[in-house]
Amino acid sequence: MNTLHIDTCPLCGGKHFKPVTACTDHVASGEQFEIWKCIDCGFAFTQDVPVEREMDQYYETSVYISHSDTQKGLINKVYHVVRTFMLRKKVRLIQRTSGLKKGSLLDIGTGTGYFPHAARKSGWDVQAIEKNEKASAFARAHFNLEVRGDGTLSTYDDRSFDVITMWHVMEHIEHLNELWETLYRLLKTRGILVVAVPNPASYDANVYGPMWAAYDVPRHLWHFTPSTMQQMGVKHGFILTEQHPMPFDAFYISMLSEKYKASRSVFLKGLWMGCKAWLHALAKKERSSSMVYVFRMK
Question: Residue 252 pLDDT more than 80?
Fold first, then answer.
């Protein structure tokens, strides 16, 4: 298997790194992967992951909910309930931050299609991209969405979209700087880019350490803190205009983390930790388990 060994920081170009922790893939393989950090800028990444074209086997599992839409088990049932609520919030967010009730929207990493379906129902002209064929097939069958493969980004014209969204997708993308360059090209001058990613600077990440489920190695290659996400946007001509916590993510992630720890009373312990993480995020949103970032062009 070919692996990606990072010897130059994609954020600052530095070459000084240190390993900070080792995490286990609890979803698919049981393998261990190290997370390293750039000493110069603090950007963290998973080192020596399989290259993107050989990563499929780490996604092909019935428990990977973004692609399978499974409702098996109490944790995944909770995920579905929360998602219904969050879909409405996401649509309201793009309407408010873009200043538009409807417009052109590109959703990258559509998964099983719930968000672009919700946006389309609200009047948006939606384009959806997803590389996993199983997830794409679900989106087509259940929502009648036209879902294109991830190799089609380059076929869109410049300044095509009022809004581009990436909900828990950017952490998966191997060619990070190339992606940001494409996002800049595709977005209209007054458009907005909305990016949601897990936050390794969160309260629950600090508590669980290498057992924190949102490290999700090797599928998550990049681990953005609020600081490094802002720096990445600036590097590519964007201004971070808003950042918002995703407090409900802490409950799902904490339950998964307790499951990986083989804890007793996984649901109750995860619920308790989710409550604590939610309270910490109320006091300081930058400690939320996941964050939503809204960017505009400079």
Answer: yes
Residue 68 has pLDDT above 50, yes or no: no
**Residue 228 in contact with residue 42, Cβ under 8 Å?**
yes
Residue by residue, DSSP assigns the chain as --EE---S-TTT----EEEEEEEE-TTTT--EEEEEEETTT--EEE-SEEPGGG-GGGT-STT-HHHH----SHHHHHHHHHHHHHHHHHHHHHHHHHT-SS-EEEEES-TTSHHHHHHHHTT-EEEEE-S-HHHHHHHHHHH---EE-GGGGGGSPTT-EEEEEEES-GGG-SSHHHHHHHHHHHEEEEEEEEEEEE-TTSHHHHHHGGG-GGG-TTT--EE--HHHHHHHHHHTTEEEEEEEE-TTHHHHHHHHHHHHTT-SSHHHHHHHHHHHHHHHHHH-GGGSSEEEEEEEE-
Q: How far apart are CA 103 and CA 90, in angstroms?
A: 15
Q: Which tokens go with 228?
A: 């490094």
Whether the per-residue pLDDT at 181 is higher than 90: the answer is yes
User: What single letter denotes the amino acid at residue 273?
Assistant: M
Residue 109 tokens read as: 């990493």
For the residues 146-166, what does the mean pLDDT come to? 95
